[in-house]
Amino acid sequence: MESLQGKTVLITGASAGIGESCAIAFAKERAKLILVARRKNKVDELARKLSDKFNIDVHTSLLDVRDRAQVKNVVANLPSEFTEVDILINNAGLARGVETVAEGNYDNWDEMIDTNIKGMLNVTRAILPGMIERNRGHIIYLGSTAGHMAYTGAGVYCATKFSVRAISDTIRIEVVGTGVKVTSVDPGAVETDFSKVRFFGDEEKAAKVYQGFTPLTAEDVAESIIFCATRPKHANINELIITSTSQANSLVIHRE
Ligand SMILES: NC(=O)c1ccc[n+]([C@@H]2O[C@H](COP(=O)([O-])OP(=O)(O)OC[C@H]3O[C@@H](n4cnc5c(N)ncnc54)[C@H](OP(=O)(O)O)[C@@H]3O)[C@@H](O)[C@H]2O)c1
Asked: What digits encode the pLDDT tens for the residues 74-111?
């Protein structure tokens, strides 16, 4: 098992859910953290807590991954002790709405494609060249079981997560021989703010998604990510699919 102590870890979407749990999990391993999200106040508060509790260095930035110029600027202006990113957790993402494609909402399509595909690419493009130059580094993408199987009302969300898989598979081929690792961690249903965001704040609809079974927690996913990040230098987890024991795939969930 590789130690994460002192490693520089950049986490996008660190203000909530899986990103926040990853920040806590990497802090426990004494990594150096770069936490970014649009809600800067949330990452600042988390940074304060983690640096106090674990005595680690944490840098924060406001970052909308859709804003290519901002991504370039944030990466170009990292403080000197944070410039060599060892691990990138490309996590920021969302689903919006459950319309069929025939009744699709154009704004929702744009937001998902701009965040989940183009946003992840923007951050990758800013960080990957440095990793290739240093012959080390690890990019961990948050894919989804939605990237393995389509389901109704999620055509564009599934398309974005199929894309994440295509992009991570491609990069793994492109960097082979450099020492850079690429992993896609693909969870099933995880109880976070994800469904609240998908239903535009409707808590009742969001709660129904997780009714009658025990979904994954953000901590479960963070633990899997730590596993991927701590394999020995010669071993890479290409893809890790994790679901609740009650979930077989995107379509089959056993509810009591
Ligand atoms: N929950 C699930 O069931 C599930 C299952 C499979 C995969 N995933 C994937 O896991 C990832 C994290 O989701 P989650 O469940 O943790 O949801 P969440 O609790 O809603 O957190 C999403 C995070 O993404 C950030 N984000 C959204 N748009 C952003 C943007 N344009 N720029 C920067 N940050 C942005 C949010 O921060 P700000 O709003 O502060 O920017 C927030 O920190 C996503 O990629 C999601 O697709 C989730």
From this structure: 999 999 999 999 999 999 999 999 999 999 999 999 99
Nearest CA among 159, 156, 151 for reference residue 109: 156
Q: Which sequence positions are flagged as catalytic? A: 157
Tell me the two tokens of residue 73: 């600027």
Q: Ligand 1 pocket check: which of 194, 209, 246 to mutate, most ligand atoms within 8 Å of Cβ? A: 194
Percent of the chain residues topping a pLDDT of 90: 99
**C-alpha atoms less than 13 angstroms from C-alpha of 170 in its C-beta half-sphere:** 9
Domains in the chain: ranges and CATH:
8-242 (3.40.50.720)
Residue identifier of the C-alpha nearest atom 41 of ligand 1 = 38
How big is the CA angle at 202 (ends 43 and 184), to the nearest 5 degrees?
50
Q: Is the pTM here over 0.85, yes or no?
A: yes
135 φ, ψ to 5°?
Answer: 60, 35
Our answer on whether the CB atom of 89 is closer than 6 Å to any ligand 1 atom is no
pLDDT for res 1: 87
Give me 174's structure tokens.
Answer: 């492109």
Residues 28, 7: Cα–Cα separation, whole Å: 12
Q: Is the pLDDT of residue 19 over 90?
A: yes
R_g of the chain computed on alpha carbons:
17
